[in-house]
Amino acid sequence: MLKRLFSGRKKNNNLSIMPNGTTNNEDRAERLINQYGFDFDRIPKMEIRALIETETSEFQQGSAEYIRLLCGYLYCIGDETDIALIKKVKYGINFDVGQMIDDAWIENLEDQNSNNRVRLINEFISYYKNYFRLDTT
Predict the structure, then answer these.
(1) What is the mean pLDDT of each run of 10 residues along the chain (137 residues)?
(2) What three-state secondary structure class fits 87?
(3) In degrees rounded to 5, what are phi and psi of residue 132?
(4) Burial of 128 from C-beta contacts in 10 A (0-12 / 13-18 / 19+)
(5) What pLDDT score was predicted for residue 73?
(6) CA separation (Å) from 121 to 67, 75, 118, 137?
(7) Is 94 left (phi over 0), alpha (psi -120 to 50) or beta?
(8) Backbone phi, then psi, for 4, in 5-degree steps?
(9) Best CA proximity match to 29, nearest among 137, 132, 101, 108
(10) CB 17: neighbour CB atoms within 10 A?
(11) Separation CA 8–CA 115 (nearest Å)
(12) Structure confidence at residue 79 (pLDDT)
């Protein structure tokens, strides 16, 4: 089970704080990681694309972290056909969401540099392993 790391994190007053101290946004991200983890071979690309489309059309303030995770998953399992959707999210929702989506993901899908891709995927995994921690007990 994943648990939220609390060290130094500020809460946005516009977000609902759950009884466990997390936001709905963080809980949705945690559930997604619990469901898929980082085994990219078993993450259904069309489902991730559909979730991104839903988040784009039904945007909820404060969902940037969850949307970042979705776009990161799409980057990790995607290819050049996914560039337009990632750009739509980065440039089409708002500044906060746009800042969460890494330019390097888009650039790497465009130039298809596999060495860079391995590094970027490892950084994505590391980010979420540091944001959440695995409870190995």
Answers:
(1) 36 42 76 94 97 93 93 97 97 93 95 90 94 59
(2) helix
(3) -120, 155
(4) buried
(5) 98
(6) 16, 8, 5, 27
(7) beta
(8) -70, 135
(9) 132
(10) 13
(11) 33
(12) 95
DSSP 88-125: HHHHHS-HHHHHHS-HHHHHHHHH--HHHHHHHHHHHH
- Lookup result for tokens 């995770």: 69
Q: Could you tell me if 108 and 120 are in contact, meaning their C-beta atoms sit under 8 angstroms apart?
A: yes
Which single residue is written with the structure tokens 């909820």?
Answer: 60
Does the predicted TM-score (pTM) go above 0.90? Answer: no
Provide the residue type at 93 as one letter: I
CB 48 within 8 A of CB 84: no
Distance of alpha carbon 66 from alpha carbon 26, whole angstroms = 7
Give dist(CA 36, CA 113) in Å, integer. Answer: 25
Cα dihedral value 32, 33, 39, 43, nearest 10: 10
Q: Closest by alpha carbon to 71, among 37, 111, 100?
A: 100
Can you tell me the distance from the alpha carbon of 14 to that of 108, in angstroms, rounded to the nearest whole number?
34
Q: Which amino acid is at 46?
A: M
Give the whole-angstrom CA distance, residue 94 versus residue 48: 20
